[in-house]
Structure formats: C-alpha cells, structure tokens
Please model this.
Amino acid sequence: MSANAETVTQGVQGVHRVTLRFADDVEHRVEVAPGQSVLAAALAQGVPLISQCESGSCGTCVARVCDGDVRMNSKKQTALLSSEREEGYRLTCQAFAEADSVLELDYPSTLGEQTPEQSEAEITELEWLSSNVVRLALTLPEDQTFEFWPGQYARLRIPGTEDWRSYSMSSAPGEAPRVEFLIRILESGAMSDYLRERAAVGDHIEVEGPHGAFYLREPEGPLVMVAGGTGLAPMMAMLDTVRVQGSRAPKTLLSFGCATPDNLFHGDELELRCFWMSKLEVRTSVDQAPEGYAGRIGTPVDALQAADVAAPGTTAYLCGPPPMIEAARARLIELGLPADRIFAEQFTPSAE
Ligand code: FES
Model:
C-alpha cells in the first residue's frame, strides 16, 4: 500500500488494520472496512489468502486470531467446530475485524499464489472398494500441469450438470498425470448417482484444482494420522509422499475407522504400505460389528494413546466427518499434543 493510501484510510471510522502472518513469517497488513470480511479485504488488496466457497461451509479459509478482536456471527452455522472457535480460529470469509488484529495462517504465503487449473480428464479406472466407496482414477491431458501438495483437493464437475464437488486426491503428486480420488457413495446425491448409474471408463470429466490449505508439512518428528471413511484419501497421498524417503521416512501412525466391517476398504493397500514402510503402524477400527468380529471395535480416536504423541515434533493430520475431527482434536490435546501441531480437514455431506 502506498503512503498516500495509508494516510487516507488512517482514522476512517471503523476501519481496522489486520496483520496476516503466514507460516513462512511473511506478513501482510490489510485495511478492513466495517461490514467487510477479512477475506474480501485481503483479496481486494492482493494478499493471497486461501478460500473456496466464501460462504462458511468449506473451512478452507481458516485463520487463528492471536491478537485483537475478529468476530463471526455466532448464530450462523459454519464449518468451524465450536472447539476451534474457542481456540481463536475464525473463517476469514465470515470474519469481521472489531479492532486492529493479528491473524495467523498455518500455510506459507506461497500457497495462495498457486493458481487452480481447469482441464478435462478421462476416467481410466473406476472400482467399488466397499459397499459405499468408489476409487476413481483420472488421466489428465499430457500438456496439463497439475502440481499439488499431498492433502489438497480438487473440484470435479458432475458430467451433464453445472454442479461441482470437492474431493481430496488420494494419489501422490508425483503420480500426475494420473490423479486418484476415493469417493463415498451416498444414498442420493448428484455425484453419487452419476458414479453409481452412468459413469464408465473412457468418460470425460472436468477437474479444477488444486485447492485447500490441508497439506503435509515438512515432518519434524512422527506423524499421527486419524482418518474416518474417505478421510483416508489425503492420508494415502501423504503416505505415498513420505514413503519415497525410504529409511528417512518418519515414524507414522495411521488410525483409520469406518462405521461397519463392510464399509472398510483399502486393507490390502494399507498392508502394502506397512510392508514398504517399516516405521508405519496402521490401526483399523469399526464403530460397530456383529458378534464374533475379530477386529478392533471403536472409533479411530479411541485407538489413540499417550505414547503416540510423546515424541518431540509429533504432528497430527485429521480428516473425516466433523464429530470425528472434534473428538480427535480434543483427545490429542488431552494426550499432550500442542494445538498448533494438529491440522484438520473435515468432510461435510455436500463436499462428498
Ligand atoms: S472459503 Fe469456505 S469457509 Fe471460507
């Protein structure tokens, strides 16, 4: 901002200065007018904040208030968990500055400079993995660059409609132009209906991405991953990224759960990862099972223990439905993991 512009806004009633502090220590200060969201102000002033829905439903634009006063409408239903709100997290697309403030973003300033690309991909694999999960592999055009960080997601346009849905990539970035997704099939839903009734290998589907600030950070210690259902997808991308480090790959725990045994999937893929990665442990749980079931019954959160987070530098990644995320976050903090070492991506039905 020029000195002149600063002079003009200084002292304007209700305008507050919000400092946006990125994980790479880059700071940007923006002027936020009354009634203007922090996100709108940042984007208007050229600051690369991550966002997607801009309606409070995806959770992509989250930031943490570390000084000042930034508020959200407490009556509006959003993707933010109540525990996150209490810890100072805000969705910048729904947040308004009440005072000069400082917000921390848990991603580097370069992430927002990533430009999502749109292209038409071909369905090359389509496989039912369980009673309600489909593995969808696409091949992007050869001239298409699709660079993403493991954990990020893309939007897929449902063929024959104007509707888009968001899904995390389950393949590692190095596998492009092949890109894979794990998609939960709902009883009714536009994408679910398409995949169940009409989709076929050879179909074309529009892809746009990458998006999102949920991604694998440079490991500073062990990794703890907690995944519910198709929340396994970004964890697969992360596992396949760290496994190429061979013996330098960090000790990793994946606690994965589904509702019932017939919902479980990717057992063979996880077994293979355990074979390849000597420091990987997988705990698989089901919420409920018929009598005599030999596996673990409970949630993937129940399977977490204090020893899992005891090592310095442990970082946790959570992906699944909101109640699982909330329970996992609370449990990990109770076990002693600092809140700023926990990164989460929650699924909502519209996102699936
Ligand atoms: S951009 Fe989706 S919640 Fe803010």
Q: What stands out?
A: Residues 51-54, 56-61, 79, 91, 93 surround FE2/S2 (inorganic) cluster (CB under 6 Å). Residues 1-10 have pLDDT under 50 and may be disordered. The chain has three domains: 3-107, 116-211, 223-351.
